[in-house]
Amino acid sequence: WLAKERVANQERELQDLHGQCTWLRDENARLQSELTDARKKHTENGGIDWSKIDELKKIEETLRDEKSKVEWRLGEVTQYWNDAKWKIGELEAGMAHKEWLLDQANQKIFELDQMYRFRDTTKNFLDGTFLIKKQPSGDRYKWRLAMWNESSPNDLKDYRRIWFEIRAPTAKIVLLSASFVSWECFLLCQQLDNDCNRFGVWIDIPPGRYEFLFIVDGQ
Q: What does pTM read for this prediction?
């Protein structure tokens, strides 16, 4: 707020200085015209009033000095004004970054709150249950399998990421079923970008021996 008030004051001073410069230029032009007219008049009359000319020259020099001072002050105020604008931009950018950090912190708090609420609600019902979790974003074809142990899947560190792939030309839908999940559960395989005849899916599974099968277009 103080920085903006300072910029406003400097803008007013800048306008005043511009007005003073304009007035000084006009006054200087007027005196130059008077001096020229006086010289012409006295030449035509056969005599020159040098005291009048000297007086006009002194006034002209004084105005020239005042004009130089005002222009110097104008440059100084312009620099202050530019510095203040830069400072305000810097402060606004800092505030925007802090607001973004605050939003991120609030989002993290919300996610943690939801996670703990879920654990508190389900820990008495899911003990020993085998869970399947699809990635929420990004690699949507990847699934994470975990054994629920009390309130958290502590055995995730032992899991291995395995790629299951099948060649199925002209296939439209390819599903994977395996003994590491219920045989009634099917995972959708994705068509490879670099080979339209192949389908596959990444799965994180715990150590062990498993059976699996692909179902291609229902077969």
A: 0.35
